Amino acid sequence: xxxxxxxxxxxxxxxxxxxxxxxxxxxxxxxxxxxxxxxxxxxxxxxxxxxxxxxxxxxxxxxxxxxxxxxxxxxxxxxxxxxxxxxxxxxxxxxxxxxxxxxxxxxxxxxxxxxxxxxxxxxxxxxxxxxxxxxxxxxxxxxxxxxxxxxxxxxxxxxxxxxxxxxxxxxxxxxxxxxxxxxxxxxxxxxxxxxxxxxxxxxxxxxxxxxxxxxxxxxxxxxxxxxxxxxxxxxxxxxxxxxxxxxxxxxxxxxxxxxxxxxxxxxxxxxxxxxxxxxxxxxxxxxxxxxxxxxxxxxxxxxxxxxxxxxxxxxxxxxxxxxxxxxxxxxxxxxxxxxxxxxxxxx
Length: 347
Prior knowledge:
The chain is an all-alpha fold. The chain has helices spanning 11-42, 50-57, 64-97, 109-124, 129-152, 160-182, 186-197, 205-224, 226-232, 236-241, 246-268, 274-286, 290-314, 323-341.
């Protein structure tokens, strides 16, 4: 019986080394996320000690610090799942559209979800969490279809530039409609002004329980399409020649992204640029294989949103800056850099 050996420098050795490097980076990313989660529990309007963190996690509410930790736990969990959802949605949209500028916010998907929620609240009095999530997903789907249809018009089909312009115009129009609906309704405007900015400050276990199964379904749809997303980068003709069902991969990936974006928007408001910044950074670390890129993007998105939430609580104490503002400050210069430094025809 012979034992196969891997020769240094061979393709198998290179593949094994690349896998080990990626696993190392995965461990680093998880470690960074864990540290940020501890920081999220420790810092806020009132800083708490390690003993108070341990006491709060064990269920104790005997002191002010322990009570603060108990309240911050669902907020941290919501930041993790929303950040992961937005990053996964962004990476998936970039894959199915072959557009490096794709992002749920830039392409108008988040604005479509936000408009649908506001219409439901203002005109139908929606208040049930499941109904709001369903309406947000419907709005995200309609906005996505509209942007893709407009971006596909003319010669060349749905190019990255046309999709970006169509998305930017759609996002601006839908945001204006949201403002027009809310301005005459002071009660609704006051209640949802922070939701419009995007934040995780109102987290509770009830809301998390509502959105977690839907986000899990969207994540599964994106992850099972990861191999097909990698092949799509070669072009539709070559992907089809390799046996990939291009239409099915795009449809499943798009449905997953819409579920993720619509649900995240319903629970936390329209938070921009997470789906743009995180996949690009992760691509520099693990490459363009979506079987690795999607999990890394999820961890990176969770870390970014937790970090933004902690930063927003620390720099303006005792007040807070919503995470939507922090991510916009980070993401806007990054978006400009991508436009100026990269050729954006296709991935």
